[in-house]
Design brief:
- The protein has 278 residues and is an alpha+beta fold.
- The chain has three domains: 2-81, 2-Layer Sandwich (TATA-Binding Protein), CATH 3.30.310.260; 89-99 and 233-278, Orthogonal Bundle (Endonuclease Iii, domain 2), CATH 1.10.1670; 114-226, Hypothetical protein, domain 2 (Endonuclease III, domain 1, Orthogonal Bundle).
- It is built from twelve helices and eight strands.
- The chain has helices spanning 21-25, 67-77, 84-91, 95-103, 114-123, 129-143, 156-159, 176-187, 201-208, 216-226, 237-247, 259-273; strands at 2-7, 10-15, 33-35, 41-45, 48-54, 60-63, 146-147, 150-151.
- The protein has a six-stranded antiparallel β-sheet with strand order 1-2-6-5-4-3. A two-stranded antiparallel ribbon has the order 7-8.
- Strand 4 (41-45) and strand 5 (48-54) form a beta hairpin.
- It binds a DNA duplex (13 and 12 nucleotides) through helix 6, helix 10 and helix 11.
DNA sequence: TCCCAGGCTCTCT
DNA sequence: AGAGAGCATGGG
């Protein structure tokens, strides 16, 4: 699915799948990457700063990433061992899915750190992406560790001793108490995030639902964007709208084996086109 | 001013 | 078990 070359302390990738940094990093699954003035994308993930770009000839460049770091961190983060072209081909027997995946074919579903993802999607509830980013940014600046390019995402252990009042500067609103409940349960082992990727989907979901402020949608986002559960299908307002408008209420059978991936295509398509509801 | 945002909890039938 | 209000905050 890709070949990698390591030189000048950078990693150079050639992918067989179509790949878009804006679609992947700014489609609402990650909240801490942004496009830089020089056209590269930069952000902090997995406790380190990453800067990358796609060159004119389609090569992906990860700057200041050596082979060890690529293998240990970014290969999995960018889900590089999954064949997206094959998935798109299979779902394209459905005309609407073909259209939607054509719009968002550059998306890859990331495998992000468990705590960061869970916490971020707790913050996302009944919220908009711009404000989600703001709250997460203030959370990291206030309680994360300083590193090159900004601040790391604070650990559950760091947040567990705090109270919701301590989070007032984040302006997270009613979500502050949920963040603290999640931090405490993760830090004290009541909820074990590390095993979720190896549990059956429903068992993993039940584990996350033990946290106050985590319902089906937030749990599914965590399972999909962090724990490799592409059988999770987060239903937000956009997806519910799209299912009704595009598919008469139910996901086409072609999509079921790849529900989570397809969810991203539909989400992207729905937001781009606004489903032609004006 | 009201409505909405990658929803969930709580209460009331 | 299903419906509906309330929830913090900020942008349109």
């Amino acid at each position: 699915m890709f070949t990698a070359e390591f030189k000048n302390n950078n990693t150079y990738l050639t992918l067989s799948d179509p790949f878009s940094l804006s679609q992947t990093l700014d489609c609402g699954q990650a909240f801490r990457f942004e496009e830089l003035a020089n056209g590269r994308w930069g952000g902090i993930a997995c406790d380190r700063y990453l800067e990358l770009e796609i060159t004119a000839d389609g090569q992906v460049v990860l700057y200041n990433v050596n082979e060890t770091e690529f293998e240990n961190v970014w290969r999995d983060f960018f889900d590089l061992d999954r064949d997206y072209s094959k998935i798109i081909e299979e779902i394209s027997t459905n005309e609407v899915l073909k259209n939607a995946s054509e719009y968002g074919k550059g998306i890859r579903v990331l495998n992000q750190p468990p705590w960061e993802t869970l916490c971020s999607f707790i913050i996302s509830q009944n919220n908009n992406i711009k404000r989600i980013k703001g709250i997460i940014s203030r959370l990291c600046e206030t309680y994360g560790e300083k590193t090159q390019g900004g601040y790391t995402f604070p650990s559950a252990e760091k947040l567990a001793p705090l109270t919701p009042e301590d989070l007032a500067p984040l302006r997270a609103g009613f979500r502050a108490k949920y963040i603290i409940d999640a931090a405490r349960k993760v830090a004290n082992g009541e909820v074990n995030l590390e095993v979720l990727k190896d549990l059956p989907y429903l068992d993993a979901r039940a584990e996350l639902l033990k946290i106050k402020g985590v319902g089906p949608k937030v749990a599914d986002c965590a399972l999909l964007f962090s724990h490799r559960h592409i059988d999770a299908f987060p239903k937000d307002v956009w997806i519910k709208r799209a299912l009704t408008v595009l598919f008469g209420g139910e996901l086409p059978k072609e999509a079921v084996p790849y529900a989570g991936i397809v969810q991203q295509y539909i989400f992207f398509f729905a937001r781009e086109t606004k489903l032609n509801i004006e």
